[in-house]
Each structure stands twice: as C-alpha cells, then as structure tokens.
Amino acid sequence: MDAESQRVLDYLSEVEEAAEDVLTSKQQIVDLDSKRNRNREALNALKNELSDSEKVKVCFGNMFIKFPKSKTREMIQRDQEQLDKEINDLRKGLKAKVNRLNEMQGKPELRGYSLSPLSTDEVKAINGLLKR
C-alpha cells in the first residue's frame, strides 16, 4: 500500500471515529432523557396518588424496599437534578463533537447551533419589558 492510500485510510478511520463519538453521545442523551421521563412520571404518581404519611415501594436493582414518601420524592428529585446536569454536559460536548466532525469532512460549521436558551431571569426581564 502506498503512502497516499494509507493517508486516505487514516482520514476515513478518523472520520468514522468522530462519527461514532457523536452517535454515542446522542444515544447517551436519549437513554438519560428516557430515565428522566420515568422519574417525572414517578414524581407525578407520588404527588397525586398517596398521602404523605404512607410508605412506597422503591425498586433498587432487583429488590423492592419500602421508603417514606417524602424521602422517595427527595431521592427522585436529586436524581432528576443529576440527570439534567449530565444531559446538559453531554449536549455541550456534542456541539463540539459535531463541529469537529463537520470540520474533518470539510463542511461549514453549523450556524445557530451554539445558541443557548434564555435563563429564567432573562425571561422574567423580557416579560417585564413587554408588559409595559
């Protein structure tokens, strides 16, 4: 194999690695988001169906343990916060990975892809201005 063929193979393997990295991050986001949705459903069930004094069965691995409803709600809310943080970190990293892949393929950088949503304070400020 000559040097030119080796360079092409190296380039293709780098692009494939970068693409797999993007796909892996996307799949992790999907998996974490489905877990977040299950937690949201559990929180709604806890809010609507039982009195606060009752205990609920919580699944840990392959066993169920009775926990006070308030402790269970706190655990799920902490898990939700952790999931939100992990998803946001993955999304930030995904932007860089996609840009790197596009750069390797000679495509232009995506425009508007690095936008971030308004914070709650920014939304309140805008709503305050619009109500005047």
Describe this structure in words.
- The protein has three helices and two strands; from the N terminus they run αββαα.
- 2% of the residues are buried.
- It is 71% helix and 9% strand.
- It has helices at 3-49, 69-104, 120-130, and strands at 55-60, 63-68.
- The termini are far apart.
- The chain is mainly alpha-helical.
- It is flat.
**Radius of gyration, whole Å:** 23 Å
By secondary-structure content and strand pairing, the structural class works out as: mainly alpha
Shape: flat
Largest sheet: 2 strands, antiparallel
Q: Which assembly state applies to the chains in this document?
A: single chain
Measured by DSSP, the beta-strand proportion falls in: 5-15%
Helix content, binned percent: over 70%
The span between the termini is 72 Å
Helix and strand pattern: HEEHH
**Strand ordering within the main sheet:** 1-2
